[in-house]
Amino acid sequence: MNKTIKILTVLLAAQLLLAVGVGLTDRGITVTNEPVALVSFDTEKIDRISLDGPEDAKVTLSKNDGDWVLPDLGEFPANNNKVNQLLERLEALRSNTPLATSAGARERFKVSDEQFERRITLSEGNDAVARLFLGSSPGIRLIHARNEASDAIHAVKMAEFDVPVKTSDWEDKSILTLPKTRITAIKVNGLHLQRNTLAADSDKANDDSSQSPTWQAYGLAEGKQLKTSAVDKLAGLLADLRFEKVMGHEIKDEYGLEEPVLELSLTPRGGERVTYRVGKAKDREEYTLKLSTRPEYFRLVSYKTKPLIEAASLEELTERSPQSGEEAVSSEKPPDS
């Protein structure tokens, strides 16, 4: 009798395992220990990415002539490296046996069609070729994920902050930068600062690690001389100028640009003169930049803007001349630049 019961128990267990396997197969889920791609797509063909988050947060990225841009910001350049890293990370996602497959689990892990932390849609033209939902996190650098085409829920190596849904997080912050050695002239606070021609044309002109260039000043007040190291510092701050976010194409009174706290022009080697105007909000430490060569208004990082304003002041750029010797050149007629 006991032997018969044991045999029946084994047969029942085998039937249950078979039923589970058939059920998973019917739902398009393969039970395997081999890692499989969570989403399949051709990176080279993807030309549009939509990123959605809670509370209607949304970022759209599109490819234009091989570069990623932000269409909601008038095709402003996106951070190409960051976009490509996202695609590489998605392409590399692998998972084994799913954690769950039920509709209730989708809600619990926040990977349903309506409730999610991130929804990533990859498109080729007008056709969405892959959509992935990211939800709750079971641990450090882990997140629950579900391919829209499947019921399977996995835990994958990724984090919510890898997919920001603020447009400013995808902007190319280096758009205002240039090599310091390309700066040939600066006009600020009545001074015309001209980089020595020989230094500008030297073989090391593109090497920022080379020795500080020689600068000449035109428009110096009587009894004053130029501090060349201070000019080099100002050139460095301008060369590495980065912004916090794009504010749009429309000027606002709150930007304070009618009475700018800093106005100067910069001439790059082989390029046109660029005017910089920086305004400050009246009631807070917010600075906005407008360039003559771009349509956007840029919100600057406050703690980096103050040193720039200070470096452009006459107090920083000049000093009292010694009683003898000439360490700077002064002229009422600076060369064209």
Task: Describe the protein's architecture and organization.
The structure is a single chain. The relative contact order is 0.11. Helix content is about 20%, strand content about 30%. It has about 325 residues and is an alpha+beta fold. Strand 17 and strand 18 (about 285-290) form a beta hairpin.
Our count of helices gives 7
Strand order of the largest sheet: 5-4-3-2-7-8-9-10
Determine the oligomeric state from the structure.
single chain
By secondary-structure content and strand pairing, the structural class works out as alpha+beta
Helix/strand order: HEEEEEHEHEEEEEEHEEHEEEEEHHE
Please tell me how large the radius of gyration is: 30 Å
Strand content: 25-35%
Taking the alpha carbons of the first and last residues, their distance comes to 105 Å
- Integer average pLDDT: 87
Segments where pLDDT lies below 50 for 5+ residues?
18-31, 324-329
Whole-number count of domains: 2
Largest sheet: 8 strands, antiparallel
Number of strands: 20
* DSSP helix fraction: 10-25%
The outline comes out as elongated
